[in-house]
Design brief:
single chain; 188 residues; alpha+beta; Alpha-Beta Plaits; 2 domains; globular
Length: 188
């Protein structure tokens, strides 16, 4: 991770990979149950997703951590409390953690540096994105319509689109990607 060359001021995602020593998985799970609530107390924390190892797919724990700004993410990553917790995890992991920082929608479909897997076929990404957008817009527009009707149309659209993008990025697309994982990444 090279934070010196990274300076953005919008939502940011850290993808943290840990390869756990055989037989230490339960201890690692317990360690995770301790670190996640601590991360939630830091300013700007927007959520975390944990992808657990899957036989034949990946053998690592992949933690996808969302913050509102790069500065807040950096404060968590460099905090003394996190450093102490990472020290406690070292006996459980095979190699130093891999931390990658992302700022775009690339995490909807692929995790960086996952060279054993090629990205999903584009038509699959299109179909899954269409499904996510369709479902989200259908629900959000019905729910927000009564509240936004008195507003100017452009303002109502800006609010609706903002809500839709937030839901897609942080709630729906990670779930759809997980749900359709075997279809997106078929074993060959």
């Amino acid at each position: 991770m090279n934070s010196a060359q990274f300076n953005v001021e919008y939502h940011v995602t850290a993808v943290i990979t840990h390869l756990i020593k055989v037989g230490r998985e339960e201890e690692y799970e317990e360690w995770m149950r301790g670190i996640i609530p601590v991360a939630r107390t830091f300013p700007g924390h927007l959520g975390v997703n944990v992808l657990r190892p899957q036989k034949g797919v990946h053998s690592e724990y992949i933690i996808v951590l969302h913050f509102d700004h790069h500065q807040n993410l950096q404060a968590w990553l460099e905090s003394d409390v996190r450093q102490e917790l990472i020290e406690r995890a070292k006996p459980l992991i095979q190699a130093p953690e891999d931390v990658q920082i992302l700022t775009g929608l690339e995490t909807w479909f692929e995790l960086p540096r996952r060279s054993q897997k090629s990205p999903p076929k584009r038509y699959k990404m299109v179909l899954l994105t269409w499904l996510g957008v369709f479902v989200t817009i259908s629900i959000v527009s019905r729910l927000l319509s009564p509240l936004l009707t008195p507003l100017p149309m452009l303002l109502a659209q800006v609010i609706t689109i903002g809500v839709v993008v937030w839901i897609l990025t942080y709630l729906l697309m990670p779930q759809l990607t997980r749900l359709f994982y075997k279809w997106l990444y078929p074993t060959t």
